[in-house]
Write a structure and sequence with these properties.
Layout lengths: L2 H11 L6 H18 L1 E2 L1 E7 L2 E2 L4 E6 L12 E4 L5 E3 L1 E2 L4 E2 L1 E2 L1 E8 L8 H17 L9 H11 L18 E5 L5 E2 L2 E3 L3
Parallel strand pairs: 2-12, 2-13
Antiparallel strand pairs: 1-9, 2-3, 2-6, 4-5, 4-10, 7-8, 10-11
Helix pairs in contact: 3-4
Protein name: Carboxypeptidase regulatory-like domain-containing protein
């Protein structure tokens, strides 16, 4: 039997019905199930010197293996007035954090706020740079202005927590699969 007759026979006998459809559903289920198990829900409470820590940002960074390969992307949370938080991974658009061990950073610095005068001046500078580079109709977005200002203007907000909780963190947490994870932190400082 030659290749042409095999193709004709295949085309003649193949039917996308009872046999193929369940296999497609199984493949979709397996693929979807795998991606959901890569992240698990994480909530918790952060206290500082025995009091709920409000408006703190938590960053859960997956710790990779010995070669630096990590299982997922960082997840973020923000505490409310009771010190409670819930993690979310915006890069993967999922609730929770990647399954595995994480380095945890807790920061209290605030995002830099810029005056309208600073924003207008930055927009002018960026437009001039674009024109000098050959773009005669620059479209400077707010994000471009904020990115420029974040590099040009130092953040005056000071961190109130000891460095062992953020810059030189000593905090870790292991996210377990297929369960609700609770990561509470009782921080101490001056």
């Amino acid at each position: 039997m030659n290749t042409l007759s095999n193709a004709a026979q295949f085309n003649g006998s193949f039917s996308f019905s009872s046999a193929a459809l369940p296999l497609c559903f199984l493949a979709v289920f397996v693929l979807t199930g795998c991606s959901n198990e890569a992240y698990a829900p994480v909530t918790g409470v952060v206290n500082y010197n025995g009091q709920p820590l409000e408006d703190a940002k938590l960053i859960f960074e997956p710790i990779g293996d010995s070669t630096g390969n990590a299982n997922g992307k960082p997840s973020y949370g923000k505490t409310d007035s009771q010190g409670q938080y819930t993690l979310r991974c915006p890069q993967e658009d999922v609730e929770g954090a990647a399954v595995g061990e994480h380095r945890v950073r807790i920061v209290t610095t605030k995002a830099q706020q810029y005056s309208q005068k600073q924003k207008d001046r930055a927009r002018e500078l960026l437009e001039k740079q674009e024109i000098v580079n050959g773009n005669q109709a620059p479209d400077i977005t707010d994000k471009m202005v904020n990115d420029y200002l974040s590099d040009a203007v130092p953040n005056t907000s000071k961190e109130t927590l000891p460095a062992k909780y953020n810059l030189r963190t000593e905090l870790t947490f292991t996210v377990e699969s297929s369960q609700q994870n609770t990561a509470d932190f009782d921080l101490e400082g001056r």
